[in-house]
């Protein structure tokens, strides 16, 4: 109890002592200090409020920027998706457009061809030529006898004269050449229409090819587009000729393909053998800084050699010899004092391996032919096998077969039409290719002389079909049915077929001109033939028609 009372009294005394009224002088400055503190607190409060507003503004700006970035990202993503969709539709539209354009060109422009079986194919070739009729047998026979048959004797005499002179000229050429450094020239061979007996249009021109080989110890290594390496489409039908030493591996040593160090030596080839001065290869008629035979260099060498040879033997002949065409380096012309002249082509060629296929240095160009890729690319000619095939098939045909007559008549009609309307993409070689295909497809008895009219129609139909499809395949390349008796190289039989009308796909202007010329030839066929035909009584003609019916 006393302790509790003491605690209460101590608490009351402490409260009284600490009351503020007991110390008025010590606390007299409190009101003034309080106003300053309040003022500072207000200033601090204002600064904090401004800082808060600034921070809120920065946060709002950051949020707006973030939203803008997110929106931009969404727009970009949508743009990418839209672009992908647009590119896809654009590509699809282009493909559809190209397909429509190809269909329009290949089918709509060619809808003149009559593919129906109800039309009379004996008198009508295409839908646009329902009024075109063929000359009958009597008119064709009269035309052939008067206009074409009489030229056979002239061709035989001309061939004999040209071959004799060419042999003498080449013998003189060998005598003026350096046997140790110049190319070795072999005997010439006759090819083409003059030697296949179907040339009809004058002037008659003999085509002679002259194989040549390099001097020892060099040899030619030939490579064609079907040898295994990939060739562009415009180089199909061509090949290259590499000049190598006879003891050099065909595939070449690795030292020719790899840079050896200065302290390394090839154990197979000495430095003398592997290092060939560029001047030496140029002397071998190669393209500059290469080992590939240059067709232009070969033709320059051949022209110089022929000129030297003629200067040696010109005193023996009573005529002049000159090069006749600038764009045909092998074209020669014999000019007699009487004013008459004889033209012939003497063209150097390189034999492909051990066959009768030849790389030809210069080939007559047409408006359809594409430009030669380069002077190191040589065109392959199968003219020797074509002549042999015609001779082989002729032995199985009836006497006086009409196959040569058909080709002669068609060649005459086309040549006559081109003289009226200008040249076209068709050449005599295309016409001969058509005949070769039909000779292989038709039975032997179908070429009897009395079937001249029918076979001529077949050739025109086949040619029309090829023009419509823009496809005329080379007869030998890719043809597995070539008679084994010809000994034709198997590498060309197994090759992909070569389309001779491929340039028509690329050159629409020439294709249109060629088709128009073909149409005009059909329209003018009767008039062209009747112009050179002896008058035949109408009664006789009607009698022949009745017999044929």
TrEMBL record:
Coiled-coil segments on the chain, per record: 38-72
Record carries keyword Hydrolase: no
A Pfam family that the UniProt record links to this protein: Mab-21_C
GO MF term (any one): protein kinase inhibitor activity
Keywords in alphabetical order: Cell membrane, Coiled coil, Glycoprotein, Membrane, Nucleus, Signal, Transmembrane, Transmembrane helix
Ranges for domain Mab-21-like HhH/H2TH-like: 404-477
Compartmental location: Cell membrane; Nucleus outer membrane
Membrane topology note: Single-pass type I membrane protein
Signal peptide: 1-20
Keyword Oxidoreductase: no
GO cellular component: nuclear outer membrane; plasma membrane
PANTHER family the UniProt entry points to: CELL FATE DETERMINING PROTEIN MAB21-RELATED, INOSITOL 1,4,5-TRISPHOSPHATE RECEPTOR-INTERACTING PROTEIN
Family: Belongs to the ITPRIP family.
Annotated function: Enhances Ca(2+)-mediated inhibition of inositol 1,4,5-triphosphate receptor (ITPR) Ca(2+) release.
Protein name: Inositol 1,4,5-trisphosphate receptor-interacting protein
Source organism: Ptilonorhynchus violaceus
Recorded name of the encoding gene: Itprip
């Amino acid at each position: 109890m006393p302790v509790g009372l003491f605690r209460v009294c101590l608490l009351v005394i402490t409260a009284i002592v600490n009351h503020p009224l007991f110390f008025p002088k010590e606390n007299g400055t409190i009101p003034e200090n309080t106003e300053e503190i309040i003022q500072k607190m207000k200033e601090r409060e204002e600064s904090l409020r401004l800082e808060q507003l600034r921070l809120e503004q920065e946060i709002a700006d950051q949020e707006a920027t973030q939203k803008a970035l997110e929106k931009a990202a969404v727009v970009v993503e949508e743009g990418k998706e839209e672009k992908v969709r647009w590119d896809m539709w654009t590509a699809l539209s282009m493909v559809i457009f190209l397909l429509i354009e190809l269909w329009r060109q290949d089918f709509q422009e060619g809808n003149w061809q009559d593919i129906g079986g109800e039309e009379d194919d004996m008198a009508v070739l295409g839908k646009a030529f329902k009024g075109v009729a063929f000359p009958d047998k009597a008119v064709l026979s009269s035309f052939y006898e008067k206009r074409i048959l009489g030229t056979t004797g002239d061709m035989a005499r001309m061939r004999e004269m040209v071959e004799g002179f060419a042999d003498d000229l080449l013998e003189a050429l060998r005598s003026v050449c350096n046997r140790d450094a110049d190319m070795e020239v072999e005997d010439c061979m006759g090819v083409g229409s003059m030697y296949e007996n179907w040339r009809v249009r004058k002037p008659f021109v003999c085509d002679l090819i002259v194989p040549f080989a390099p001097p020892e110890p060099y040899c030619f290594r030939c490579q064609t587009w079907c040898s295994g390496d990939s060739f562009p489409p415009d180089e199909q039908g061509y090949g290259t000729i590499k000049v190598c030493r006879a003891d050099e591996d065909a595939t070449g040593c690795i030292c020719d393909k790899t840079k050896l160090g200065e302290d390394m030596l090839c154990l197979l080839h000495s430095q003398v053998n592997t290092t060939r001065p560029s001047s030496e290869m140029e002397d071998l008629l190669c393209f500059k800084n290469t080992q590939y035979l240059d067709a232009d260099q070969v033709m320059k060498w051949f022209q110089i050699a022929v000129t030297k040879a003629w200067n040696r033997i010109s005193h023996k002949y009573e005529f002049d010899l000159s090069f006749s065409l600038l764009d045909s380096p092998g074209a020669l012309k014999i000019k007699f004092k009487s004013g008459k002249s004889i033209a012939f082509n003497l063209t150097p060629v390189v034999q492909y391996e051990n066959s009768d296929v030849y790389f030809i240095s210069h080939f007559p160009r047409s408006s359809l032919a594409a430009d030669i890729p380069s002077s190191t690319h040589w065109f392959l000619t199968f003219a020797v096998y074509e002549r042999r095939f015609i001779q082989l098939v002729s032995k199985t045909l009836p006497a006086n077969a009409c196959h040569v007559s058909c080709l002669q008549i068609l060649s005459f009609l086309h040549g006559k039409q081109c003289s009226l309307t200008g040249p076209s993409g068709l050449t005599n070689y295309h016409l001969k290719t058509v005949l070769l295909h039909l000779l292989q497809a038709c039975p032997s008895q179908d070429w009897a002389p009395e079937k001249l009219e029918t076979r001529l129609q077949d050739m025109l139909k086949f040619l029309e079909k090829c023009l419509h499809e823009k496809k005329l395949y080379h007869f030998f390349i890719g043809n597995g049915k070539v008679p084994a008796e010809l000994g034709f190289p198997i590498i060309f039989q197994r090759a992909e077929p070569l389309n001779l009308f491929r340039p028509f796909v690329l050159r629409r202007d020439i294709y249109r001109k060629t088709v128009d010329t073909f149409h005009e030839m059909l329209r003018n066929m009767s008039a062209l033939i009747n112009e050179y035909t002896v008058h035949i009584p109408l009664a006789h003609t009607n009698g022949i028609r009745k017999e044929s019916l």
